[in-house]
Amino acid sequence: MTSASLFRLGLLTLFLSFLSPLTLQARDASQTDAPISLEEGVPDDAAILERIDDIFAQLESLQGIEASVQSGVVTLSGTTTNADAIDLAETLSSRVEGVVAVQNQITRDASVTNRVTPAMDAARGQIEAFIRYIPLYALALGVFALILMGGWLLSRAQFIWRTISPNRFVADLISTFVFTLAFIIAMISALSLIGATAFLGTLLGAAGVVGLAIGFAVKDTIENFTASVMLSIRQPFQPNDHVVINGEEGRVIRLTSRATILMTLDGNHLRIPNANVFKGVILNYSRNPDRRFSFMLGIDPEQDEMEAASLGQATLDKLDFVLADPPAVGLIKELGASTTDLSFNGWVDQRNTDFNKARSAAISAVKTALEAAGFSLPDPSYRISIKGGAALPTQPVSAVVEEVDTPEEASAPAQAPDVPDTSPDTSLQERVDAERRAKGEDDLLGNGGASEL
C-alpha cells in the first residue's frame, strides 16, 4: 500500500468520526419525538376504568377516591385523610395496562370530624374485640395462677430439697430455681392460650438481650455469688476457726452470700469478698489441733554447739505442755559471724495449750537452761575498719576476768524453772460466739456441706 492510499484512508476515517455523533443525535431525536402508536388488543377507556374501580374497591383507604379515563389518561379525584393513600392510588393506576398518564387531583381531608371518627371506630373495635376475648383471658389467667401456685407449693417443700442437698444454702437455691421455672412455664402457657406467640418470642428475645447486658454489668457480683455457693458446699473452714486468708489473719465469724467475715486478733471485723476467698490461699490453724512452734538462739562459736542443742532439746522434753509425739528437736541452724544459731522445735496441743504462751515459755526455759550450763548467748558483734584515715587513739582499759566453768566442767543441767500459765486464751473465741448469737444474719457454714479438710 502506497503513502497516497494511506493518506486517503486516514481522511476517510476522520470524516466518519465527525459524522457518527450527528447520526446518533438524529436517531435519539427521532425516537423521542416518535408518536404513540395504536396497538391492537389494548384495553379501551371503559375497561381501564372498570379495572381501576375494582382495585380501589378492595382497599379501605381508597374508598373515597374516584377515577375517570379519557384516551388512556386517568384522572384521580376525591378526598382522603391518609397521605399514603394518595401515592398508593397514583401508583396502582399507572400500573394498569393501557394507562398512558395519571393526573392526580386527590386532596387531603383536614377536617377534625373525619379524622376523629376513624379513630373512634378503631377504639370501639378494640373494645369489642377485648370483650369477646374476656373468657379466653380469664382461662389464660386461671392457668397461669394454677401453674404458679403449684410451683410455689413445690418450692416450699423444703424437706424434698434438704433430702437432695443437705446444705441449706444449696437447698434454697434449688427451691428458688423451681419457683422461677414454674413462673416461666405459667407465662408461656398463658400467652399461648391467647395466641400471643409472637409477643412471647419478642419477650424471650428481649429477656435474652437484657440478661446478657445485666450479666456483663454485674459480672463481679455473679462471680462472688458463685464463689459463695462453692464455699458453702466445700466449707474449707468452720465458725471460730483460726485462719489466714490471703495474708489476713483472724477467727471466722460467718460465711454470707457476699463475704467471709473474720474477727482479727485485735478484735476488729474484717470482710473479705467470697470471690477472693475462693481463689485465694487459706491457712487453717484450727483443723489440726497439734501445732509446732519454733525459735532460734545463738551461742558463742567457741562452745560446743552439739551439747547445747541436746541440752535445749532435753529441756523442751521436760516441759509439761510440749508433746512427746512428735518429739521436740534441737538443731544447728547455721554458723554466723559472731554466733552459732541453734533452732528448737516443739509441738503443743492447741485444745489444752495456748500456742503463743507455750512458745514464750519454751524460749525462756531453754535460755535459762543454757545459761545455767555455762553457755553464753552473745550479742552480734561487728568489726569496723576505716581506710585512709589516721589510727584512732586508744586508751588502756582494765580487764576483769571472771573464771567460769567450761561446758565440760559444768554441773548437770538444772531443772527447768516453773513455767507460766499456758492454758488457752479463749477471750477471742468468746467474742466470736457472742457475735454469732447477736447477729441474725444467715450463716452458710455448718449446714451439711462437705469439708475439704
> How are strands sequenced across the largest beta sheet?
7-6-5-4-8
Q: Give the structural class.
A: alpha+beta
| Helix share, percent | 40-55%
**Number of helical elements:** 12
Q: How much of the residues is beta strand, in percent? A: 15-25%
Shape: elongated
Over the alpha carbons, how many angstroms does the gyration radius reach?
51 Å
* Total strand segments: 11
Describe this structure in words.
The chain is an alpha+beta fold and 453 residues long. 48% of the residues lie in helices and 16% in strands. The chain is built from twelve helices and eleven strands. Strand 4 and strand 5 form a beta hairpin. Helix 4 runs antiparallel to helix 6, helix 5 packs across helix 6 and helix 10 packs across helix 11. The longest helix is centred in the N-terminal third of the chain and has 44 residues.
Describe the structure using short key phrases.
single chain; 453 residues; alpha+beta; 5-stranded antiparallel beta sheet; 11 strands; 16% strand
State the gist of this model:
The protein has 453 residues and is of the alpha+beta class.
Topology, pairings included?
Layout lengths: L2 H30 L12 H14 L6 E6 L2 E8 L2 H12 L6 E8 L3 H44 L2 H7 L3 H26 L3 H21 L1 H16 L7 E4 L2 E8 L3 E5 L5 E5 H6 L2 E3 L5 E10 L5 H13 L11 E7 L4 E10 L5 H18 L54 H12 L15
Parallel strand pairs: 2-3
Antiparallel strand pairs: 1-2, 4-5, 4-8, 5-6, 6-7, 9-11, 10-11
Helix pairs in contact: 4-6, 5-6, 10-11
